[in-house]
Specification:
Strand content: 25-35%
Number of domains: 1
Radius of gyration: 26 Å
Structural class: alpha+beta
Largest sheet: 5 strands, mixed, barrel
Order of helices and strands: HHEEEEEHH
CATH topology: OB fold (Dihydrolipoamide Acetyltransferase, E2P)
CATH class: Mainly Beta
Helix content: 10-25%
CATH superfamily: Nucleic acid-binding proteins
Distance between the termini: 60 Å
Number of helices: 4
CATH architecture: Beta Barrel
Oligomer: single chain
Length: about 180
């Protein structure tokens, strides 16, 4: 059907197309073999100090970001990750909070509250801080890779949609179809 010479450029075009669809990986290739995929957030929250040195992937929504002398402290509401390693849409699925520390300069204005992100980080322990009027133990990660996700579009479900049956739009002409006029 196709000449053999026509198949080669088509195959090359397909390979280039698929390579372009690969996108920006969340986990860098150099860190992928070091990831601890068995460690879950509830385990980390219970005993973060025992997992010191483990490399994990967590995601969520930024609650606050503060510039410190030696880096940037990001408080994150943990949200379970989807298959693409993007935080899910439902905040009620959260199992707690964690703190991510970026050693290099990161302007807190670039990650305002509500920003969704995925962190590849090394567990450095935990810190006890105030959460409203109680003490809360935050697991602490040192950021090795950070992916900030674009804002999701607002749901169209919030815009009211009024359904009109198809005949509504043709109402003035509806009764003239199929009739013979004399």
């Amino acid at each position: 059907m196709f000449a053999p010479t026509a198949r080669i450029p088509a195959a090359l075009a397909l390979i280039l197309l698929l390579a372009g669809c690969a996108g920006n990986p969340v986990v860098p290739a150099s860190l992928a073999p070091q990831l601890d995929k068995t460690l879950t957030f509830p385990q980390l929250r219970e005993s973060a100090d025992s997992y010191r040195g483990h490399l994990i992937v967590l995601g969520g929504e930024v609650l606050s970001a503060k510039r410190l002398k030696d880096g940037t402290r990001i408080e994150v509401l943990e949200i379970p990750l989807e298959g693409s390693l993007q935080p899910g849409p439902d905040r009620t699925m959260s199992e707690g909070r964690f703190v991510a520390i970026q050693k290099e300069f990161l302007d807190p204005a670039t990650i305002p509250p509500g920003t969704r992100l995925t962190v590849v980080g090394e567990v450095t322990g935990s810190v006890v801080d105030k959460l409203d009027e109680t003490d809360y133990t935050f697991p602490v990660l040192e950021i090795k890779a950070l992916k900030v996700w674009p804002r999701r579009e607002e749901s169209y479900a919030r815009i009211p949609y009024y359904y009109y049956p198809p005949s509504y739009y043709w109402r003035p002409y509806y009764h003239t179809f199929g009739r013979i006029r004399r």
